[in-house]
Design goal:
single chain; eight-stranded parallel barrel; 8 helices; 42% helix; Sugar phosphate isomerase/epimerase; isomerase activity; IolE/XylAMocC-like
Amino acid sequence: MKIKTGMTSVTFRKKSAEDVIAIVKEAGLDGIEWGGDIHVPAGDLGTAERVRESCRQNGIEILSYGSYYRAGEQERFRPVLETAIMLGAQTIRVWAGTLSFGKMPREELLRVAARLREDVSAARTAGITVALEYHRGTLTETKEGAAALLDQVPGLFSYWQPNPDISHAEQLAEIGAIASRLSNIHVFQWDSENRAHLLLEGEPEWKERLRCIAACPGRHDLILEFVKDGSEENFLRDAAVLRSWAADAGRIS
């Protein structure tokens, strides 16, 4: 199975949507995860329609809608869903609260889960899946928190990305813990100080992660996020590396 490659538009927040499309096309990546903070704000259906059409004209896929909706907060999911529908996204990325599993009271976890069940149900009617951002400072900071939430919400999926605070072995264990509900992958190379490096510097670790990911059921798009120095040159270098890795992983799956 071919593994799709792409970039999340927040990699270049200062670029216009047209410039984001242009550099993704230059890099030879398959598609874009459009961020809901700058490029396609929730509720701005006109922008979503224009971005969808521009992607279509340039042969760029819409990999997902990267919203900043946080389940459990006083936020409305409907504008997010309507924007994803207009954009043509098949997946909406959402955030699991504002606390890690160890810090979140049980009643708050249940409230987040209840909200997500409603959101997943609403999205399903439009043929869209909902997937959690796998991120520190939320319920998905640990595999235990992610598993607890996924167990509460049938039909919910989860992204994955490497947490630089834990070991490589622990990262692989995270992938295994959510394997049956794994969605897309945010790809970047950070050190323990949260500094971005060229993707190639993490090749041994990433190739092992991708072997684990390729063994998981379903489709898993590889989406570049942070690049060294935020530069276009380094992005293009990373994109070439990612395309090579995706081709290798596709032969495994």
